[in-house]
Amino acid sequence: MEHKKYNAINQPVRKKDSMQLLLGKPVYVEDIAPKDALTIKLLRSPHANAIVEEINVSVAKKVPGVVDIYTWEDVPKQRFAIAGQTYPEPSPYDRLILDRHVRFVGDVVAIIAAENEKAALKAMKLIKVNYKILEPVLDFHQAKDNEILVHPEEDWLAQVPVGGDARRNLVASEISGDGDVDAVLADCDEVLEHAYHMRSFNQAMMETFRTYTELDRYGRLHVISSTQIVFHVRRILSRALGIPKSKIRVEKPRIGGGFGAKQTAVSEVYPAFVTLKTGRPAQLIFTREESQIAGSPRHEMEVRVRLGADKDGRIRGLDLYTLSKTGAYGEHGPTTVGLSGHKSIPLYTGGLEAYRFNYDVVYTNTMAAGAYRGYGATQGIFALETAVNELAEKLGIDPTLIREKNMLREGMKMPAYYGETANACALDKCMARCKELFHWDEKYPVRDMGNGKVRAAGVAMAMQGSCISNVDVGSATVKLADDGTFNLIIGAADMGTGCSMIIGLATTVSTDIIGKIPGVSLNDRQKHILNKVIVVLSSLVTYLIATQMGAILSAMQKALSLAIGTSFIVIGGLLCPKFSSRKAGFWTIMASIVSIVAWNMVPALVPVFKNVGFFMLAVCGAVFILISLVDPEKVKQ
Q1: Of 37, 183, 19, 10, whose CA–CA distance to 113 is shortest?
Q2: How far apart are CA 444 and CA 397, in angstroms?
Q3: Residue 372 belongs to what H/E stretch?
């Protein structure tokens, strides 16, 4: 097989920020923020459910170095959501910057702005708060339709109809399915039913939540934050603070880990509010304890699975119910729960006759949950895969074989995944290859290792799509500058997922592909690329960037070819008045148009003429000769 040689493709590429990290350069928020910023500290509630009846900050304000202290009486009364989601957000608008009603241990009661951390911490101890302590809802099994309401306020708002009802402690609720599940399960030889409980987990990224804010020379709010969602942060701050998005600019430096936690705007609103009130730069850095008690961890879920199959292992019916605990606020609640079913049930599309998936997402007086790697799919997949293994053991069937009999295959329609078709799926090949590499037949189910030790073998499948179907979008712009360089502008930012490497690879790929367009050459300077990094939610950004760049580079090839050809059309038009016959100019232009079409549709022309420009000259020259032969008197020298 002939292998093409490229200058960049299949060659090592250095990660864009590798030298900065290796040499310890300032790349994180705390590194690049000016040192004269106000220090922000947050007084947090010691109660899970309480009303602030009285708060006295007069003594605390007298501490030297304290600039101001803000309470629920000082902030806008506009409710908002802090989930980083496409507008309109499925998550309810249920937050205030500071609320008189505190809903979990760690909810914010007051904002302290001081010249230094020592003064802020001293002032925090001097704030006197009287609480009316209320009974909390802590067990998410008892939250739905409980007489104790986590959000009794009248201005609770759900932008999207996802089945939420604050009067029932519901953030979201839905029932979906295909076929008569109960009838199919009743006809199955074996029915397995089990509940699986997955607790909440904290991401524990190395860099805690942190944000720096200032007013730029135009009076705009400039936000530098360790976040995955700069576009969403701008929109969130706009609503929370009551200022236009055009007055807010958000950027992110290098992120010291996120894993989904920073897909929620946990820290941004507090220093932003202080900067608007004081006109001064402000910075908030969460302690490790704050990140643990008031962060954005994984949703705790309980998944109940009913699985029906025949004795030969064909899975015919599947009934899955997920109860999800969103905590005190609803960010990401309606969307994570959906993946617990939509990313697990389709795995067994092969023989499935009917399925049902329903869920409830409930409020409790605990720390609000959010995004975490897998975004809800991990909980559902763990539950269903465990159930399938239990079913295989009950039927006496190899767990890989029961999966091969029932798994999703390419071309199958997935009723449990919005009716989409699996246009690209190699799950069957993957299972076969993994069995081969693992030596499954020799190692399953258990081996005696000697000395009283055994080693067991197990198997599970998972599915993950890139992007939320028909919701997530991406865009990229490539500009050819007047100095001959190419500028790439793309709304993506690296948080350790490697998308900056993909952008770097896009540079090298464009060097090879564009550089191989006949008649187009790139020198070293032209091989540089300028990228504007903005936002990333998760690993899906790698898919988005690759897709965008592939389309852009393909379009750029055609655009450059057409540009060269079009230039000859213009030349033909300019030359037209120099002919005594308009017909000559007309046929010149027509020849140019035909040449462009032919060049892009007849690949055989490329190796002959090498360059679309040469081909155009040849065609136009032939037209001139033809006209001069037919009517030489009408062609002027």
Answers
A1: 37
A2: 12
A3: none
